[in-house]
Design brief:
single chain, Rossmann fold, seven-stranded parallel beta sheet, 20 helices, ten-stranded mixed beta sheet, alpha/beta, UDP-N-acetylmuramoyl-L-alanine:D-glutamate ligase, 493 residues, 17 strands
Length: 493
């Protein structure tokens, strides 16, 4: 597989365009199907050596054609193979018809399948392009296979799973292993699709890499190769001010811990200086806990404006534990010309009139990063959040364009989106990152990268990935305090 394709994710429409362009270039489409089917058979034999019977479920399109080729290859290898078809196989056309004719194995209607101990299902009913709910017959077979605990090898995607959105359409197989071709689809990475695919293997069936790159959109799996060249690396002449001064705003007394988590993470993540901007009543408690992190009194927006005039501040984090309301809005709008991570209470403070925030940050290169979880996203973008026709990627991209901001749409399948349409799906975060304070740490890491001069989208993407790596280093049972101490993780690139 061409290394340049590893992070690429093609939507079903883009993959169809690649198939068509490959055919126009003179590559016989049946050759691609034959390679795919033989790769499926090889994967079945490799991953399920103890299978007593392989059962190929073949659909009415080219995915079914892959299944017929795989069934023939398995039989040629000496395996016991049964074939079940969906719909009338006599209506098959083109490559799928040729694959069935060459298969030489008789087939039975899908609905008569009865699970047996030792079965392995080769699921070639539907590919990534399914856009409607699966037929009742398929839903019933999915239920039957699941209840019997039969292992499933999915072709392209588990049947019933939307390749664009990663959601089941009336039901989907739970695959132990999925084999797909040339690149993965968003549905392989977005949840719940990721959990339904099992292990995903990408096989190169021979479509030229130039064609894949030509049809590819702007969706990628988040990884260092996309932004590592922009990470600041201290040189021999580096001093603290060149590494950027990050300001993190604290809430009132009794609500200061979140800001200190962000500040600690920011310092660990490479900011040269970090200062907590604190209201007067919280100064004593913050002073008692801070050492390398500085402290500055900020009670009102006037205090903030004075600080901005007199200090060399490179980036800001506003929201963790800050409190919801007018003060948060005033502070955010006062920072409209500067790199800002707006998180938690800062986001919710604009729920009544989010356009005030969007208008303030509308000009120039994006320098606002919004880090909403599901609920906060719905508060800022209620119409986008409730549009079930959109994938999580499409929602994040639409929101980023509206807000003129980098969006970190958090979750186990965090999506980072840019106003220019780029979107990265993050996959390296361990499940134990779902703990109180984890988001505060993430905000601090992104803030530190902004302070060091990274553009907003790249800082957001790098911050999310480094946050995941820090979680791995901290290990199971970690607290947010543990996570913050690991926020300085560096990658071996």
């Amino acid at each position: 597989m061409d290394a340049s394709l590893v992070s690429l994710l093609l939507t079903p429409d883009e993959m169809a365009a690649a198939d068509a362009a490959s055919a126009r270039s003179g590559i016989p489409s049946f050759d691609l199907m034959d390679r795919a089917g033989r790769a499926i058979a090889a994967a079945a034999l490799r991953h399920f050596p103890g299978a007593l019977r392989f059962v190929a479920f073949c659909g009415p399109g080219n995915n079914g054609g892959d299944g017929y080729v795989a069934a023939r290859a398995l039989a040629e290898a000496g395996a016991t193979v049964d074939v079940h078809h969906l719909g009338d196989p006599r209506t098959l056309k083109g490559d799928a018809r040729q694959a069935r004719d060459l298969c030489g194995l008789s087939s039975k209607p899908l609905e008569v399948y009865q699970p047996r101990a030792g079965d392995v299902v080769v699921d070639a009913l539907f590919g990534a392009g399914l856009t409607r709910n699966v037929p009742d017959i398929v839903a019933e077979v999915i239920r039957k296979v699941g209840e019997a605990g039969i292992s499933v090898l999915a072709v392209d995607l588990p049947s019933g799973l939307c390749g664009r959105r990663g959601v089941p359409l009336g039901g989907a197989f739970q695959a132990a292993h999925t084999i797909t071709f040339m690149t993965r689809k968003p549905g392989h990475l977005l949840l719940p699709g990721r959990s339904l695919c099992g292990d995903v293997e990408v096989f190169d069936i021979g479509i030229p890499a130039r064609i894949i790159r030509e049809v590819a959109g702007r969706i990628r799996e988040n990884g260092p190769e996309l932004w590592s060249g922009l990470l600041a690396e201290p040189g021999s002449d580096t001093h603290k001010y060149r590494r950027g001064h990050l300001a993190v705003f604290s809430g009132e007394a009794g609500k200061t811990g979140a800001a200190r988590l962000s500040a600690t993470a920011g310092l660990k993540a490479g900011a040269g200086l970090v200062t907590v901007g604190s209201p007067s009543d919280a100064m004593p408690v913050n002073a008692a806990w801070l050492t390398a992190i500085m402290l500055y009194r900020v009670d009102t927006v006037k205090d903030l404006e004075n600080w901005l005039r007199t200090a060399k501040l490179a980036a800001f984090v506003l929201g963790p534990g800050f409190g919801i309301g007018k003060k948060a809005r005033q502070f955010a709008l006062a920072l409209k010309g500067r790199p800002l991570v707006l998180d938690a209470d800062g986001i919710t403070s604009f729920k009544e009139k989010p356009s005030d925030l969007y208008d303030a940050f509308a000009g120039g290169e994006p320098h606002l990063v919004l880090t909403p979880h599901e609920g906060e996203f719905a508060r800022l973008f209620p119409d986008i959040a409730t549009d079930d026709s959109l994938s999580k990627v499409e929602k994040a991209v639409t929101a980023a364009a509206r807000a003129h901001a980098a969006i970190v749409y958090k979750g186990a399948d965090t999506v980072i989106a840019s106003p220019d349409g780029r979107a990265y799906i993050n996959t390296n975060g361990p499940p134990w990152l779902a703990t109180a304070g984890s988001g505060d740490v993430l905000a601090g890491v992104i803030g530190a990268l902004l302070a060091q001069g990274m553009p907003a989208f790249e800082a957001a993407a790098a911050g999310v990935y480094l946050h995941g790596e820090a979680g791995k280093r901290a290990g199971r049972g970690m607290t947010a305090e543990d996570l913050a101490t690991h926020a300085g993780v560096r990658l071996d690139l």
